[in-house]
Amino acid sequence: AQRDVLEALSFTVAGNCPAAYMEEIYHSLEGSALEQLMLIEDGLWKSVQDEAFKRLFDALYDTDVLQFPVSLLTVASLFEALIDAMAEKY
Fold first, then answer.
1. Looking at residue 78, what is its pLDDT?
2. Which residue has the higher pLDDT, 47 or 7?
3. Of 21, 35, 38, 66, which one is least surrounded by beta carbons within 10 A?
4. Domain of 23?
5. In a domain, 69, yes or no
6. Any domain includes 48
7. What is the DSSP letter of 14?
8. Nearest to 19 by CA among 77, 63, 68, 59
9. Is there a domain that residue 23 lies in?
10. CA dihedral sign of residues 31, 35, 41, 42
11. Residue 62 to residue 89: CA distance in whole angstroms
12. What pLDDT does residue 1 have?
């Protein structure tokens, strides 16, 4: 309920964090072939997100990663996680 109120006011709770970027990417996929593909199998987006977060957390151990923006790291981890999920599925 709280989230609905904040969304109605166009208030963004999350700023520069991976979860906010993932949500924005997911909403931008609406109506695309990739969304339709991911909706075929329930839970595919959730598994892609989980794998992406795991990759992001693993990347924190490497200090060289800190030179890149969070948005770029998030997209890269999502693409890698999506490739792995599709390889497992097919």
1. 92
2. 47
3. 66
4. 15-89
5. yes
6. yes
7. -
8. 77
9. yes
10. negative
11. 30
12. 62
